[in-house]
Structure formats: structure tokens, C-alpha cells
UniProtKB/TrEMBL annotation:
It comes from Spiroplasma cantharicola. The keyword Repressor does not apply. Pfam families: Adenine_glyco. This is DNA-3-methyladenine glycosidase I. One of its GO terms (molecular function) is metal ion binding.
Length: 183
């Protein structure tokens, strides 16, 4: 079985690649989780996020965005003291802010899934990549979505973070052509 090169780094990457990365996600709770994990990955390695993923899930109430939207200063301080997650004040604040914006998107589009998949008319963008170096770090689509998210009150989601998110949730399929998981 052949995988994208990055997936061979360790077992966590391998499991993530084989079972999640690039597979279409329509469930709002999982979309929110991936959005916040990608936000936290900004400036760090994905390995760090995968190692802390379960800690994030526990710290952020199983990704219940309705609860997260109500986090107060006391909860923010608890999160800042939690060594199991990324203790960055701006990222924690962005996660709370984005939970509120996420709920507003759901109210306007019936689901976040409808909103995010609407950018491609529910189509997957299958890129044809023969080498790892060809994968872009952003695209016209990620720029457009990043701007739209900002207009809708989201923060800490620039074009590169959004592109990673689109790859993670399967809107963009950047598996290498030789990868057994391409389709």
C-alpha cells in the first residue's frame, strides 16, 4: 500500500492519512473540530496537533460549539493552564469566537456543511499531483473562503489554514497520484 510521503513519518500521521485526510466530511461537529484543530496547527507541525487531539477534545467539551461559544474568562484561564493543548491566548480566543460565528453560519445556511460545501457546489476538487512539492499551501478557493469566513466573524483562519482545512475535510483531494488512498 502506497501513501503520500508525509504519512509515513509516524503511526499517528499514517492513521490520520489512511482514515481521515481527504475523505469528505459533512458532519458539522467534525467540521468544527477540524476547523479548530487547523487553527491551532497554524505555525506548528500537524504532529503536535495529532498528539494533543484527544486532550483538545476533552478540554473543549467534546467539540460542543454551543458550550464553547459560552466560555467565559474563567474557562479561558483553565484552557491556558492546560498543558494538553496549545496554550496560546489568541488561538483560544479565536476558537471561542469561531464557535459563535459557526452557530451564526448554521442559522443562515441550515448547517456549516451547506455553507462550506457550497463553495464547490458539493464537488470534490481532485488535484493531480505527482510530487509532494507540487501541493500548494493555498489556492484561489482558500483565499475566497478565508475572506468569506472573516466577513462572517471568524478569526485566525487565513488562506493557508483554510487550504489545510479543505484538504482535511475532503473538499480538496491532494493525495499524490500514486497514493492508494487517492480515490
Amino acid at each position: 500500500m502506497q501513501r503520500c510521503m508525509w504519512a509515513n513519518k509516524n503511526i499517528l500521521n499514517q492513521q490520520y492519512h489512511d482514515n481521515e485526510w481527504g475523505k469528505p466530511v459533512y458532519d458539522d461537529k467534525l467540521l468544527f473540530e477540524m476547523l479548530i484543530l487547523e487553527l491551532n496547527q497554524s505555525g506548528l507541525s500537524w504532529d503536535i496537533i495529532l498528539k494533543k487531539r484527544e486532550n483538545f477534545r476533552t478540554a473543549f467539551d467534546q467539540w460542543d460549539y454551543h458550550k464553547i461559544a459560552l466560555y467565559d474568562e474563567t474557562k479561558k484561564e483553565q484552557l491556558m493552564l492546560n498543558p494538553g493543548i496549545i496554550r496560546n491566548k489568541l488561538k483560544i480566543k479565536a476558537a471561542i469566537n469561531n464557535a459563535k460565528a459557526f452557530i451564526k453560519i448554521q442559522e443562515n445556511y441550515k448547517s456549516f456543511s451547506n455553507f462550506i460545501w457550497g463553495f464547490t457546489n458539493n464537488e470534490i476538487i481532485n488535484n493531480s499531483n505527482t510530487k509532494e512539492e507540487i501541493n500548494p499551501s493555498f489556492s484561489d478557493l482558500s483565499i475566497k473562503i478565508s475572506k468569506e469566513l472573516k466577513v462572517n466573524g471568524f478569526s485566525f483562519l487565513g488562506k493557508t489554514t483554510v487550504y489545510s482545512f479543505l484538504q482535511a475535510i475532503g473538499i480538496v483531494n491532494d493525495h499524490l497520484n500514486y497514493c492508494s488512498f487517492k480515490d
